[in-house]
Amino acid sequence: MNTVVGSDDILLVTLDTLRYDVACELAAAGRIPNLARHLPGGRWEERHSPGSFTYASHQAMFAGFLPTPARQGPHPRLFAAEFGGSESTADRTFVFAESNLVAGLAAAGYRTVCIGGVGFFNRVGALGSVLPDLFDEAHWSPELGVTSPTSFEAQVDLAAAAVARLPAERRLFLFVNVSALHQPNWFFAEGATADDGDTRATHAAALEYVDRHIGRLFAAMSSRRRCLAIVCSDHGTTYGEDGYTGHRLGHPVVWTVPYAHFFLEGPR
After folding, report:
1. Which of 51, 65, 122, 188 could make a disulfide contact with 128, Cβ separation 3.0–4.6 Å?
2. From the record, what ranges are coiled-coil (predicted)?
């Protein structure tokens, strides 16, 4: 990462609430081709979330604690704040003196841009401002939020515009919190109504919707130079398993998340 930072653009996409099992099923069935073509070996990596809901998980990720591989560690991290005794900080880890990755990348010369999705990025009140205020530039509107059936398209439009207006020599760290998977997601299933409610199947339909548009995000982020892309879920969610619905609880489908990182090659 010490050769990547300062050279490449960096993209972090959190597919908010995406379940590992659903993500794997769709990749194996060929239902998310635009994501699957970039996944190492065509498969998601199984990891454990650092938090059971959006705010906790993103606070950890922005401190360098991306989801942890679901096997015995320690696992060297891509990014880490300076912290004495850290067993997951290795020679290849990008270590920053600041309290969070966003500030660390800004200190390394990056323009930092946040395109919010769920309510913790909406800047309505102090709590909804904590995460977006880490960035040089942050965006949120109802069109990007959980109730919009075209939220991800609008997010990609903003991302492409942010890339286009940045001077060619300036490196970019772009963060996108994808709200489409989060409830309500019933409207992504053909013929569904609000009375039908959200289900595991509508969750899957939301991921298919995201896949139809994510290629444009990848193209924008690799239009200037090579880009390191990190795509993962921040946590999963339950749809009736063991009597639970939702997240912010300690169920395996909440803690187990899909993860991938890969390079998007720039212009040749």
Report:
1. 122
2. none
Number of H helices, E strands in the chain: 8, 12
Question: Using N-to-C axis directions, what is the helix angle for 200-221 and 20-28, rounded to 10°?
Answer: 70
How would residue 162 be classed by pLDDT, with cut points 50, 70 and 90?
very high
C-alpha span between 63 and 204 (Å, rounded): 30
Percentage of the residues of the chain whose pLDDT score is greater than 90: 93
Q: How many CB atoms lie within 10 A of CB 265?
A: 10
The type of residue at 1 is M
Expressed in angstroms, the distance from the first to the final Cα of the chain is 22
**Hey, what are 190's tokens?**
């053909």
The structure tokens 């339950």 sit at 238
Which tens digit of pLDDT belongs to each residue from 86-145?
888 999 999 999 999 999 999 999 999 999 999 999 999 999 999 999 999 999 999 999
Q: Hey, what's the torsion of the CAs at 215, 219, 225, 227, to 10 degrees? A: -20
CB-based contact 232:259 (threshold 8 Å): yes
Does the predicted model carry a pTM greater than 0.85?
Answer: yes
205: number of Cβ within 10 Å: 21
Q: Is the pLDDT of residue 206 over 90?
A: yes
